[in-house]
Structures are given as C-alpha cells and as structure tokens.
Design a protein that fits this description.
heterodimer; A: about 190 residues; mainly alpha; about 0% strand; B: about 190 residues; 7 helices; about 75% helix; CHR_Transporter (chain A); Chromate_transpt (chain A); transmembrane (chain A); transmembrane helix (chain A); chromate transmembrane transporter activity (chain A)
Chain lengths: ~190, ~190
C-alpha cells in the first residue's frame, strides 16, 4: 500500500472516531501516529501539537497536513488532509439535511432547546482551557490539588481584560485583538 | 439566508480559517462574528443549532461547521467551497512553517507572542458566550443544561457527552412543556 493511501485511510479513520474535534482528537492522534504506526517520536508529537495550536486553522487539520508533509511531501499533506475531511463531508451534510427535515418536529425542538444551553456551557469550558496555563499558573482543574502553588498570572489577566474591553467597544476586528494581545504577550509574558 | 456565490463562501471561510486559532470552538466565535453579527445571514438560533450538530457528528468541529454552513447556503458545491476556504490558509501556512520556519517557534519572543494571542482567544470566547447567554431565558432547565455542559467538560469528559446531556434534558424536561401552546419555554433566542 502506498504511503499516501495509508495516510489517507489513517486520517479518515481518526476523523471518523473522534467527536468534538480539536483537542479531543489529540489522544487518538498520539495513539495512531506514535504508538501504532511510529510516524513520530513522543517529542516530535509534542512539537507538532504545539505548532498545530499556534498556527491558524483547525488543530486536527494542521496536524494532518504536518504529518502528511513530513511523511510524503506535498502529496502526503494532501492525502492526510483529504482523509481527515472525507468522513466529515458525508456525515456533516447528512446531519444538515436531517436537521432541516426535522426542524419543525416538536421532539427535535425539545432536544435542541436542551442542547443549546449545554453548548453554551461547552463554549464556556473552552475559555477555561484556553486560559489555563496563561492566566492561571496551573491548569484550573488542578486548583484543589495544586493548593498554595495555584495563582493568577497578573499580566495574563490584564491581557484578558484588555481583549474583553476591545470586544465590548464593538469596533475592533478580532484579528486586531489577537495582534494586540500577542504584542502585549511578547512584552509582558517573556 | 440570502443566496451567496460559491466564490464568496470560499473567500469568507478562508478569512475565518485565517483568523481562527485552536480549533472548533474558537472558530465558532469567529464564524458567529462574521455570519450572525456582521452579515446577518444566520440568526443566533440557527447558528447554535448548527454548532450543536457539528459537535455531535464525528470529525473536526471546524470542518463540520464549514461543510454544514456551506451546504445550507449553496448545497454540495457550497459545502466544498466553504471547507476548501477553511483549510487553504492553514494548509499553506503550515506547509511553509514545516518547510522553513520551525526553528523560529523556539524563540522566547515568538512563544510569548503566541501565548498572549492565546489569552485573546480565551477572552473572545468568553465574550461570545456572554452575548449568547443574554439571549437565553433564565429558567432552571436552561441553567441545569448549561451547568451540565460546563461541568462534564471540566471533569474531562468528551464534548459529545455534553451535547447528549443537553439533548436528554431537552427531551425529558422540556418536551412536555413545549407542546403546550401557552408555554413559551422554547421561544428562546
């Protein structure tokens, strides 16, 4: 089996077995890429994840591109990326059709009216994960075990507050808030 | 939603892909900004229903979102245009980095710039959840489902369980009330 086909099938499989995307995919990526196939060492994998988080675009997609490129150049990158997208395409379009067809069904409406606030909770949790090691000195979920060593990184909190203020003004594009926060980070967090 | 050409979809989603860092839920913030607030192509409600479904379907949330929004706007061709737009900037940037720029990422200045940008992502998501929460009515079912979603994720469970928990709350606790015409529990947003 050619390496490109292998990459295509591998990322299609990863995509099919991960729900929730991004960070949820990472353990599965690690298992497939490091443990099962030996494409990457543990250290290379950690670098790859950091890189995928730092660059724009979905984490899973970045990882597929990076691994594909390292294994088999541009063709490999294309194979990995397409593999990741194929199951999503089929299932997401089916789901969109499903939602459209049952939009006015009372059961469907009841289910969705419960899901909406739950998704709000999910998004709020994403705030905590993003702020974890930059605004707080330890991951928030270790708050009780970390004890005295758990603290707030004040420059981090300041950047958070400045970004919120820029958002509240409603006039500043999101990309600018990212750049300003990045520049402040380079000054204050070094 | 108004008719949008596939080229427009491609361009809008490449902009979204370029300004998204860190996957599904941060992309959702950018997407909401572009499609709900700036262009008013979607209502808050339509947006959140698509986001819930994109989370419940296997695969990367961001890619699922692009496929679903593209499909709603312009059918299969729209789905492909939106997904291609989302991935193109990140694929190009990542290929460039993989080829040339990996050493620079170890410089402390670059690392702390990215850390600062990460805080901005957290703040953007916090702001988006606040503006969405304002649209939901305060009744115990909503608060309960929201707390479940937040709590399940914080204890380390997979996001799909939060969606399932919300669906169960909706089905078990809101279903009966929704069929009563005088009760507007479902008229949120």
């Amino acid at each position: 089996m050619s390496i490109s086909l292998q990459l295509y099938l591998l990322f299609a499989k990863i995509s099919l077995f991960t729900f929730g995307g991004g960070y949820a995919m990472i353990p599965l990526f690690q298992n497939e890429l490091v443990t099962v196939n030996g494409f990457l060492t543990d250290a290379e994998f950690a670098n790859m994840v950091a890189l995928a988080q730092m660059t724009p675009g979905p984490v899973g997609l970045n990882a597929a591109t990076y691994v594909g490129f390292n294994q088999a150049g541009i063709i490999g990158a294309a194979a990995g990326t397409l593999g990741l997208m194929t199951p999503s395409f089929i299932l997401a379009v089916l789901a969109a059709i499903f939602v459209k067809v049952f939009k006015d069904n009372p059961t469907m409406q009841a289910v969705l009216s419960g899901v909406r606030p739950a998704v709000l909770g999910l998004i709020a949790a994403a705030v905590i994960f993003f702020a974890d090691t930059s605004v707080f000195s330890a991951p928030l979920r270790n708050m009780w075990t970390a004890g005295a060593s758990f603290g707030i990184c004040w420059p981090g909190l300041l950047i958070f507050a400045i970004t919120i203020a820029m958002e509240l003004s409603g006039k500043i594009h999101m990309l600018w808030t990212l750049l300003v926060a990045g520049a402040l980070g380079a000054l204050l967090l070094a | 939603m108004r008719a949008i050409s596939c080229t427009r979809l491609f361009l809008i989603f490449s902009k979204i892909g370029l300004t998204t860092f860190g996957g599904g839920f941060s992309m959702a913030t950018v997407l909401r900004h572009e499609l709900v607030l700036k262009r008013a192509w979607l209502t808050e409600r339509e947006f959140f229903d698509t986001l819930s479904t994109a989370t419940a379907v296997p695969g990367a949330v961001a890619i699922n979102l692009a496929f679903m929004q593209g499909w709603k706007a312009r059918g299969y061709r729209g789905a492909l245009a939106a997904a291609a737009g989302t991935m193109l900037p990140s694929v190009v940037i990542l290929l460039f980095i993989a080829r040339f720029a990996t050493p620079y990422f170890e410089r402390p200045m670059v690392a702390s710039f990215l850390k600062g940008a990460g805080i901005a992502v957290a703040a953007q998501i916090a702001f988006a959840s606040y503006t969405f929460a304002r649209n939901l009515r305060v009744h115990w079912q909503n608060v309960f489902a929201c707390g479940l979603g937040l709590g399940l994720l914080i204890i380390g469970l997979h996001p799909v369980f939060a969606v399932l928990a919300g669906a169960s709350v909706g089905y078990l606790l809101m279903h009966e009330r929704m069929t009563r015409p005088d009760d507007n529990i479902a008229k949120d947003i």
